TrEMBL record:
Keyword Transcription attached: yes
Protein source organism: Kibdelosporangium aridum
UniProt protein name: Transcriptional regulator, TetR family
Record-linked Pfam families: TetR_C_24, TetR_N
Molecular function in Gene Ontology: DNA-binding transcription factor activity; transcription cis-regulatory region binding
Any Gene Ontology biological process: negative regulation of DNA-templated transcription
DNA-binding region: 38-57
Sorted UniProt keywords: DNA-binding, Transcription, Transcription regulation
HTH tetR-type domain: residues covered: 15-75
Gene3D superfamilies to which the protein is assigned, alphabetical: Homeodomain-like (1.10.10.60), Tetracycline Repressor, domain 2 (1.10.357.10)
Amino acid sequence: MALVLSQQVSTPAPLSRRDQILAAAAELFARHGFHGVGIDDIGAAVGISGPALYRHFRSKDAMLGEMLTSISEVLLDGGQARAQRHRDPAELLAELVRFQVDFALDNPALITVQERNLGNLTDPDRRRVRALQRRYVEVWVQAIQDVVDGVDEPSARAAAHAVFGLINSTPHSRHLDRGQMAALLRNMAIAALTGHKG
């Protein structure tokens, strides 16, 4: 996977030039919108000429496609890994919530780009991203149904999307520090899904 996402590690590996370009593009797309950013803007952000970007990506569309596909792959892989690791349904649901909260808080630009730019993808990239997103939602739907008595599949799916909206809408909040915001979001998400505080 080319896109390196923010992680809490003591000594992060240096980003490749390709990953630097994607990170800069994500920040610019989040701030100015996909159509408000040109190739020259992205090049300037990483210290190269706009045309030099074509050595790494065939187009701005290709950058966005790789960015959103990578986000979807990271989320799906993380969700599936937790589903395999946790046998207790309540623990799994709590871990899925923690994972989504951490991703949103650690990657606010990517969350913004993901939320706003699905319609700007090429048709093949949009189909791929949608397919990956559906598989990620399925992990959540099963976890919710395993924890919440009597919830049907449509309700579990609606609940998952509602919680994504809650979590993903707040990464830019400056009212609380990162730890306080993470705890608040986790508690709110668990309460919304189960009626109990996390």
